[in-house]
Design a protein that fits this description.
The protein is of the alpha+beta class. It has one domain (2-40, 71-133): 2-Layer Sandwich (Alpha-Beta Plaits). It is 40% helix and 20% strand. It has 7 helices and 4 strands. It has helices spanning 11-15, 19-29, 43-49, 59-66, 81-89, 102-106, 121-131; strands at residues 2-9, 32-39, 71-79, 115-117. A 4-stranded antiparallel β-sheet has the order 2-3-1-4, sandwiched between helices.
C-alpha cells in the first residue's frame, strides 16, 4: 500500500553534513519526496511533534535538543513507507543499530541519532500535519 511518512534529519545530522546522504538513501530505495524543508523548530512545535513523550524523563532534553539548531523535514511516499523507513533508519540507540542502517552507520548514541521517523501511519499523518501545511506537499 502506498503511504506517506515523515522523516526529520535531526540537529546532529544537519551539523554533520548528512542531509544529502540521508535523502539519497531514501531516493535510491525508490521513495518519492513529496515535501522538503529546513526549519528551526520552535519549542511549541517540538512539543507538539513529540507530545507522545510528555512526562517521560527525557522529554525536556529531547525538546532542548530538537530546538538547538535547524532540522530538515521530509515527507516521503512509497509502498509500506512507514515500516520500510523504520527498517532503513535502524534502532533508536545508534550503538545497537545494525550496520547498513542510517543510525547504525552514523550514530553512537540514543540521544543524537541523526534521524527521526514516524512509527505508524496514523502518527505519520499527524506529524506531517505538525510540520507541513497541506499546500507545501506535492501530489
Amino acid at each position: 500500500m502506498v503511504e506517506r511518512t515523515l522523516v526529520i534529519v535531526k540537529p546532529d545530522g544537519v551539523r554533520r553534513g548528512l542531509i544529502g546522504e540521508v535523502i539519497s538513501r531514501f531516493e535510491r530505495k525508490g521513495f518519492k519526496i513529496k515535501a522538503l524543508k529546513m526549519i528551526k523548530l520552535s519549542k511549541d512545535l517540538a512539543m507538539k511533534l513529540y507530545d507522545i513523550h510528555v512526562g517521560k524523563p527525557f522529554f525536556n532534553d529531547l525538546i532542548d535538543y530538537m530546538t538547538s539548531s535547524p532540522v530538515v523535514a521530509i515527507v516521503l511516499e512509497g509502498n509500506d513507507a512507514v515500516n520500510v523507513v523504520r527498517l532503513m533508519i535502524g534502532q533508536t540507540d545508534g550503538r545497537r543499530a545494525q550496520p547498513g542502517t542510517i543510525r547504525g552507520d552514523y550514530s553512537l548514541s540514543i540521544g543524537e541519532n541523526v534521524v527521526h521517523a514516524a512509527d505508524s501511519s496514523e502518527r505519520a499523518d499527524y506529524e506531517i500535519s505538525v510540520i507541513f501545511d497541506s499546500s507545501e506537499i506535492v501530489d
